């Protein structure tokens, strides 16, 4: 993982692109958190914006930052979403490190533009990060078997400070599925999407319009 300075540089760079009147999807994770805090500082200076959270965590952060909130039901348009990633290769992302990827994908996909914030450690020529798959609790064994049949190695994500598995905001479980290198993300995404009981997977294929990569000597913006 990258440094806090790298994450902060990326988050603040993304927050600068928010314009008055925008509805902005607010991503989850430590890098997106920097963008949320920076947007909050701009709201304090008069920026007119409404945020759509993507998780319990991002809603709490947005409330602390006093960003006015709205929902996908109420907003006519989502102009921009700012979100993190566990890995990116061009416009393709692996997400779900925070087990929030189901709601993130809804908001990120609804946005006119998805702006990803990351540190250099997230870059890859070819995606090879394990893919988080949110599963209905009763389907964890059958989805695990399906993942193995697809050539992956599934691991039920256990919690750090709770006995047993991580439980998502939606009350589901997460299988981290290691497929090694992923030469065709679109093919794997389709295969995962059709597994019965798989609620949402962490492949965001071709979804990034822009990636802001923070480093100690500035921010590199890549556009796709
Ligand atoms: O869970 C997620 O999708 C997060 O955005 C994750 O991918 C990135 O989290 P980080 O910014 O804390 O590394």
TrEMBL record:
Q: Which GO terms describe its biological process?
A: pentose-phosphate shunt, non-oxidative branch
Write out the entry's keywords from A to Z. Answer: Isomerase
Protein residues bound to substrate:
28-31, 83-86, 95-98, 122
| Its EC number(s) | 5.3.1.6
* Region spans: Disordered: 1-16
Q: Name the InterPro entries for this protein.
A: NagB/RpiA_transferase-like (IPR037171), Ribose5P_isomerase_typA_subgr (IPR020672), Ribose5P_isomerase_type_A (IPR004788)
Active site, renumbered: 104 (proton acceptor)
Q: Which Gene3D superfamilies match?
A: 3.30.70.260, 3.40.50.1360
For this protein, what is any one GO molecular function term?
ribose-5-phosphate isomerase activity
One Pfam family name is: Rib_5-P_isom_A
The reactions it catalyses are: aldehydo-D-ribose 5-phosphate = D-ribulose 5-phosphate
Could you name the domain of life of the organism this protein comes from?
Archaea
Q: What class of enzyme is it?
A: isomerase
The protein's assembly and partners = Homotetramer. Homodimer.
What NCBIfam families does the entry give? PRK00702.1 (NF001924), rpiA (TIGR00021)
Function text:
Catalyzes the reversible conversion of ribose-5-phosphate to ribulose 5-phosphate.
In terms of PANTHER family, this protein maps to:
RIBOSE-5-PHOSPHATE ISOMERASE
Q: Which family does it belong to?
A: Belongs to the ribose 5-phosphate isomerase family.
Supply the name of the protein: Ribose-5-phosphate isomerase A
Q: Which gene encodes it?
A: rpiA
């Amino acid at each position: 993982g990258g440094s806090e300075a790298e994450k902060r540089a990326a988050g603040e760079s993304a927050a600068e692109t928010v314009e008055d009147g925008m509805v902005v999807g607010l991503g989850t994770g430590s890098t997106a958190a920097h963008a949320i805090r920076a947007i909050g500082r701009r709201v304090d200076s008069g920026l007119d914006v409404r945020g759509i959270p993507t998780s319990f965590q991002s809603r709490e952060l947005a409330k602390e930052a006093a960003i006015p909130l709205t929902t996908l039901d109420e907003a006519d348009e989502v102009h921009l979403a700012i979100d993190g990633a566990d890995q990116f290769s061009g416009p393709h992302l692996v997400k779900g490190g925070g087990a929030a990827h189901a709601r993130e994908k809804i908001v990120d996909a609804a946005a006119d533009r998805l702006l990803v914030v990351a540190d250099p450690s997230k870059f890859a020529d070819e995606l090879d990060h394990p893919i988080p798959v949110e599963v209905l609790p009763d389907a964890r064994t059958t989805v695990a078997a399906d993942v193995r049949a697809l050539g992956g190695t599934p691991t039920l994500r256990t919690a750090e400070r709770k006995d047993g598995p991580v439980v998502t905001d939606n009350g589901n479980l997460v299988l981290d599925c290691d497929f090694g290198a992923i030469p065709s993300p679109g093919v794997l995404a389709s295969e995962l999407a059709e597994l019965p009981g798989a609620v949402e997977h962490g492949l965001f294929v071709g979804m990034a319009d822009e990636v802001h990569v923070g480093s100690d000597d500035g921010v590199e913006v890549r556009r796709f």
